[in-house]
Amino acid sequence: MKRKVRFVSATMRDVKNKTGLSLATISKYLNGGNVLPENKILIEKAIEELHYEVNEIARGLVKNKTRMVGIMVHDIECYFSGKLLHYIGEELRKCGYAAIICDSYNDEKIEAENLKFLVSRRVDGIIVIPVCMRAGFLKPAKQAKIPIVLMDRSFQDEEFDCVGIDNRVAAYRAVRILLEHNHRDIAVISSDVEYTGVERIKGYEDAMRQAGLEIQEEYIKKGRHSTEVGYEKMKELLASPNRPTAVLLGNYDTMLGGVLAVNESEFSCPEDISLIGFDTLMITGVVSPSWYMVVQPMEKMCKKAVELMLNRIERKGDEAPVKMYFGTTIQKGESVRTIESDGLHTMTAPI
Fold first, then answer.
1. Which of 73, 154, 290, 322 reaches 20 to 30 Å from 345, CA-CA?
2. Which of 182, 233, 220, 139 has its CA nearest to residue 347?
3. 55 in helix, strand or coil?
């Protein structure tokens, strides 16, 4: 009969017996403290020979730090969010932290449940790409004094550390591109329930007003940012007797749906309809025509969010919230055509 071999994990006491050093000295070394060089050599050799592994959970309880950061994302299916998660996770790993990712499925109730789950796991901090536009669901984290950093979106009623772009200015500049190509019948498809979308609609309206153009309600198509909304709203615009000559698409998912609707129609881009969207992700570099895009510096934004988070974890002070808004650029493409000017309109200077 074969004997069963049971593997038993080495303990700190085993390291003590191997080295002849005190538990206090070994514990000090394992927790990042300074020990004598000769003791360091003895401990490291024993750890290697015994295959000793530090119990991170136990150490976290002692030090009141788990070296885990929660990341709450509004919708993990969103391509933009997926890229943010990649950059945030990469930066946390470089800094010695692990990430616990929670998908809120664009549902405020699930978002609140995710927040409580992360608090119960004693994460050191939470990075949030929120669904809700109000901060009430974050109360358990605030009570537990867990630092919070917002990404991409902020709240209407309370301020936190936040990293993103000035969505209003970004949309304004995108519409200016269309105006400079002599478009006047310009529509927008954007969210009226998400912070980024609401701000981008405001930027669209700013540009139209500054150009002296009437804002037509039928040209403002609203709905939560998604491929489905982009598709349905673009179909409505293309079927309109007062069809616009250009459309600003409020985010990457909306843009994918809008382009799909155009491709299925009798119209073509840019001959019949000009398009400008947000974010250079995935297929934007391989489709034809190439697209005019508002480009966000996503990697820089994520690095700054992690930097803010780690600063808060280390200090846990009461400093005022820090808001970091990065500038955007316009990637030129072939999805916007210049239409013949009627000679009756004079462009005002850009901001």
1. 290
2. 182
3. coil
Is the separation of the CB atoms in 164 and 326 below 8 Å?
yes
Q: What pLDDT does residue 199 have?
A: 94
Alpha-carbon gap, residue 231 to 89, rounded angstroms: 31
- In contact, 223 and 199? CB cutoff 8 Å: no
String of DSSP letters for 276-341: EEE---GGGGTSSSPPEEEE--HHHHHHHHHHHHHHHHHH---PPPPEEEE--EEE--SS--PPPP
Q: In what order do the strands lie in the sheet with 274-278?
A: 220-222, 186-190, 246-249, 274-278, 292-295, 329-331
Q: Which residues have C-beta within 8 Å of that of residue 7, sequence separation ≥ 6? A: none
Q: Is the CATH number of domain 68-164+298-327 3.40.50.2300?
A: yes
The superfamily in CATH containing domain 167-296 is: Response regulator (3.40.50.2300)
Q: What mean pLDDT comes out for the span 255-265? A: 93
